[in-house]
Write a structure and sequence with these properties.
The structure is a single chain. This protein is an alpha/beta fold and about 350 residues long. It has 12 helices and 16 strands. α1 runs antiparallel to α2, α3 runs antiparallel to α4 and α4 runs antiparallel to α5. It starts with 8 loop residues before the first strand and ends with a helix. The structure holds 5-S-methyl-1-O-phosphono-5-thio-D-ribulose. The site of 5-S-methyl-1-O-phosphono-5-thio-D-ribulose has 18 residues, from α2 and β9.
């Protein structure tokens, strides 16, 4: 079982403690979230980020919101406030719907304890889910290892490791499992402008002793073309019923290049990321985070101060779609906690959810 080096989300009395990801990879600092507003701000500002972690954090946000007032009106207020934080990761909306279904039928007197228990259940189930994804996904890496002399070269995008979940991660779970089994791997980590979540991935991998190389986003194509990638594994923020998958912007370009060069492209995603209410990828809402993130870049000075440096003046036009959709036909398989499947066959894995 994978143990997170620092818990991404843990209950502390009537609050939760998170690892502030806006400071990583430079400073590792935990923060206590004690109010509904704290939780909503943490999700919106990406102090917590990654689809499964956003969902679990929001569930605790509901428990925190009901501390003093357990009325239907307060429940509605909490659900609406948290649902408005980020649009693309369906795990957020899945977790809120689960909290609503659990709490609304209960008398107000029973809602407090039930909310904490349900949020904790979502958190621990996510850790188990990540482990299962790791177990299923490692077979894909093992298969390459049997016919390759040298490390299996995995390309990923954004951060879908332990920082993005309550467990080992999604896309990185098979990598960690392979590393634990003694299979040599090397991970190509793309920076993932504009928020540079690839730096989080590189930080995780370095801490875990997994060989990797940070690359500029634009370098992915040449590595795929040169035959220097054995498989691509990314996470997802929402998988539509037909297997179309939304993930961090730039994922689609990798899938296109992988197809062109005959490299398998896998998406690792749990139950909570699958949205059968979205028939196809065109129905997935894509977050627009505004131009400021594109016009600047965050980093650290030689003296250790975190700074944001201007790349382009305010007058420069900029666009910032935060996610893109990879069509199912470019996806070799989806790695879930229930097994590895073709994107078009998701309904067979989740019959209870598909109704
Ligand atoms: O904007 P972010 O950092 O929350 O986006 C994260 C991603 O796109 C991840 O790849 C995705 O959530 C999968 S996380 C297990």
């Amino acid at each position: 079982m994978f143990t997170q080096p620092i818990p991404t989300l843990v209950r502390d009395g009537n609050a939760v403690v998170i690892l502030d990801q806006t400071l990583l990879p430079y400073h590792s600092e935990q923060r206590t979230l004690a109010t509904l507003a704290d939780v909503a701000t943490a999700i919106r500002s990406m102090q917590v980020r990654g689809a499964p972690l956003i969902g679990a954090t929001a569930a605790f946000g509901v428990a925190i919101a009901l501390l003093a007032d357990r009325s239907d009106a307060q429940l509605d207020h909490a659900l609406q406030t948290l649902a408005a934080t980020r649009p693309t990761a369906v795990n957020l909306h899945w977790a809120l719907a689960r909290m609503d279904a659990k709490l609304r039928p209960l008398p107000e007197s029973a809602r407090g304890d039930a909310a904490w228990a349900e949020a904790e259940a979502i958190r621990t189930a996510d850790a188990d889910t990540c482990s299962a994804i790791g177990e299923h996904g490692v077979a894909l890496i093992e298969e390459v290892a049997t016919r390759r002399n040298g490390p299996v070269r995995v390309m990923t995008h954004c951060n879908a490791g332990w920082l993005a979940t309550c467990g080992a991660g999604t896309a990185l779970a098979p990598v960690y499992r392979a590393h634990a089994k003694g299979i040599a791997v090397h991970v190509w980590v793309s920076e993932t402008r504009p928020r540079n979540q690839g730096l989080l991935t590189a930080w995780e991998l370095r801490e875990a002793g997994v060989p990797h190389s940070l690359i500029a986003d634009n370098a992915a194509g040449i590595l795929l073309a040169r035959g220097e990638v054995d498989l691509v594994i990314t996470g997802a923020d929402r998988v539509a019923a037909n297997g179309d998958s939304a993930n961090k912007v730039g994922t689609y370009l990798k899938a296109l290049a992988a197809r062109e060069h005959g490299v398998p492209f896998h998406v690792a995603a749990p139950y909570s990321t699958v949205d059968f209410a979205c028939a196809e990828g065109g129905a997935i809402p894509i977050e627009d985070r505004g131009p400021a993130e594109v016009r600047s870049v965050a980093g650290i000075t030689d003296k250790g101060a975190l700074v944001s440096v201007r790349l382009a003046p305010d007058a420069t036009g900029a666009a910032n779609p935060a996610f893109d959709v990879t069509p199912a036909q470019l996806i070799t398989s989806i790695i879930t906690e229930r097994g590895v499947t073709a994107p078009g066959r998701l309904r067979e894995l989740y019959p209870e959810k598909a109704e």
